[in-house]
Amino acid sequence: MSIMANYWAAKGWAVRLFTFDDGREAPFYALHCRVAHVSLGIAGESANPMQGIIRNLGRIRTLRQAIQSSSPDAVIAFMDKTNVLALLAATGLKVPVVVSERNDPRLHPIGTVWNWLRKWAYRRAFRLVVQTESAKSCFPPAVQRRTVVIPNPVVLPPGNTTKNNQEAHKQIISIGRLTPQKGFDMLIQAFARVASRHPDWSLVIWGEGDQRGPLEELRDGFGLRDRVLLPGRTRDPHEKLRQSILFVLSSRFEGFPNALCEAMACGLPVISFDCPSGPREIIRDNVDGVLVPEGDREALASVMERLISDENERKRLSSRAVEVTERFALEKIMAKWEQVLHDAVGEPGR
User: Fold this and answer.
1) Is pLDDT above 60 for 160?
2) Contact criterion met (CB below 8 Å) for 259 and 278
């Protein structure tokens, strides 16, 4: 979302970004100076269903007022529940609303009521944008007819190059929220299978989340406190990737994993579970990375050991991995988004 807002702001478009937070913390991702960021102060958990209904009605009212005050040509909403609220808020305003799913709907439950509301509301969206064909297939035909598949762009910082092997340490890297979805428990278990045979290698998992405690306990149970590191969040993932030799995505499910694309763009050989959805549409198996059967810890450990032991194989995969920057180039992906907006507005030059 920040990449899209920055891209259009740099082109001179008027972009207003509404977020539900209260604005007390600065955005984690840097925004272009021309992006008007407005914190609506409507986030928060509800103690019971009745309070949830009341709060969501308030969110809809606040969001509707924000949309009306900005008089946009179009609205783009991100993520399931926010999509529903945006569609309800824009009812009757005659503003086209494009909604965007960022995960696999089959494996990311949002509750019975929200799921029903999503099915009802998405029929009223101008377009639904999903990141993979697999995600598109989750929705009924009436919604699929309004659906466009647009993957994420792969963006590297200005002047960034592929990794410098002279700077790299003998470490496997992974990046993501410390949540069950990301499967870092399986990654630690797989690494534990090969660790004793490769004592000079370590595993570094960048990210933060509510699973930190269980993951540290699992790591310590294998006696790997000094070799499996969980240093927290990083604002410079590309630098951390360049310092590593191998990237692993161990997710149970995905939407379109940015970290995997970034690792490939930095020239790392990558391994990923063939989970739904995303990795199969990014990795060309045994060409620019390796896909492992979903959830198979033994298979993951086997491929990790193979690539740890075979530098030539790592170089072969690395040489093709960087092609991801061409396949998912920013200009190519943003052209797809602009076509959606042009269709919504009805005037290609507007």
Assistant:
1) no
2) no
Q: From CA 183, how far away is CA 280, in angstroms rounded?
A: 17
Q: Looking at this protein, which amino acid is placed at residue 97?
A: V
Lowest-pLDDT range of 3-12, 41-50, 154-163, 213-222: 154-163
Q: pLDDT value at position 142? A: 92
Give the CB-side neighbour count of residue 113, counting CA atoms within 13 A: 5
What pTM, to 2 d.p., does this model score?
0.86
Tokens of 303: 């491929």
Domains of the chain (ranges plus CATH)?
Answer: 2-153+329-345 (3.40.50.2000), 171-327 (3.40.50.2000)
Q: Which two tokens stand for residue 124?
A: 């009223």
What is the side-by-side strand order in the sheet with 202-206? 228-232, 202-206, 171-175, 246-249, 270-273, 290-292
DSSP letters, 61-116, are HHHHHHHHHH--S-EEEESHHHHHHHHHHTTTS---EEEE--S-TTTS---HHHHH
